[in-house]
Amino acid sequence: MKKYISYVAVALVALFTSCSNDDITIETAYTFNVNASTVISSFVQATPGELETFSESNEKLRIRILIYNNNGELVVQDQGYFTNYNTQLKTVKNLASGTYTVIGISDVVVLSGNSVKTEFWHLSGESKLSEMKIEDGGLLGYEARILGIAKNTLNIRANESGSLSIDLKPAGALIYGIIWNAGVFSDIEKYWLFANKSSEALSFDASGNYVITEKNDGSTRYKIVGIDAVDGNHYHYNYILPMSNLNLYFECIDTDGNYHGFDGLTGTTISLNAGDEYACHLDLYGWGDYYKKVTSESAFNYPGPTSASAKLSRKKWTNVDKTAKIPNEIFSKLNRVLKASDIK
């Protein structure tokens, strides 16, 4: 009997020893700092500071971090809400040794209490990296549409703590529409910068890289920037995803809802990359349109003649679909006014 008890004791010791060596996963605390200021730091702003804070009190910058294991499965995530871009999401996560793909995302949302009421970009499929997608919500939000993304690869050894700083980068480009002498036509209600196509989603692969889906059926036009037809020089801007062979051009809408183009103006064609910035000018006093890649504040300067000449000649479009390409305008914002004190 004693010999039997001895055998059982040895077996139990062996069992527990095996469990402690093979089944217990040792995790290490790792610190993550997700920096949002780098999303807008490369942009030249027509009015300094206009991208850095939000004009609506319930607009918040949402910063998210998603951490995937070597199989592309979501291990842990976190998020925070902030009032401007000069901030970081700081979080500590316990992770086992291994290789991880870390995705950082920033976007702007409208809150109702503690819940998200409106988002300009919709994240889906995030439980699996290769199925993750970020889709355009179809809303005109101006600075609220700015989207930042970053990908990092992290290797963690057992019992090795550390930290990772993630600098988010712009996933899209900033487009300014600038109207000079905007009130010269008494029957015009609004000016629009149009595009021939749209980019509406980012799809991720198993490595955390993403591709952009373009939408172009050859006939639908897409509104990019809208500017009210009131006296003075005015601008607004929008944020869109990169596209190749993008045709930009101006039109206007009269008080009866009719679309008008401008004789002799054909717009421009550009290939738009992430982080790019373009100023698109339209002078209603005869000078015409002008499109400039922004590298300094001078791109916002008046590029036309020093004195006013004749008004541009308009032509009315017929059989134009008024609904297919109009996104919902979530904020009814006034034009931004261009004055000598603003533009150097």
What does this protein structure show overall?
With 344 residues, this protein is mainly beta. It has two domains: 27-170, Immunoglobulin-like, CATH 2.60.40.2100; 174-337, Immunoglobulin-like (Sandwich), CATH 2.60.40. 6% of the residues lie in helices and 49% in strands. The protein contains one helix and 26 strands. The protein has one helix at residues 2-22; strands spanning 27-35, 59-68, 74-82, 88-96, 98-112, 115-119, 121-124, 133-136, 139-140, 148-156, 162-167, 169-170, 173-180, 188-195, 198-204, 210-215, 222-228, 234-240, 243-254, 259-262, 268-272, 277-283, 288-293, 314-316, 328-329, 336-337. The strands form six sheets. Strands 2, 3, 5, 6, 10 and 12 form a six-stranded antiparallel beta sheet that branches. A hairpin with a 4-residue loop joins β19 and β20 (259-262). The N and C termini lie far apart (99 Å).
Care to give the gist of this entry?
The chain has 344 residues and is mostly beta strands.
Topology, element by element:
Blueprint: H1 2-22, E1 27-35, E2 59-68, E3 74-82, E4 88-96, E5 98-112, E6 115-119, E7 121-124, E8 133-136, E9 139-140, E10 148-156, E11 162-167, E12 169-170, E13 173-180, E14 188-195, E15 198-204, E16 210-215, E17 222-228, E18 234-240, E19 243-254, E20 259-262, E21 268-272, E22 277-283, E23 288-293, E24 314-316, E25 328-329, E26 336-337
Parallel strand pairs: 1-11, 9-25, 13-22
Antiparallel strand pairs: 1-4, 2-3, 2-5, 5-6, 5-10, 7-8, 8-15, 10-12, 13-18, 14-17, 14-19, 15-16, 18-26, 19-20, 19-21, 20-24, 22-23
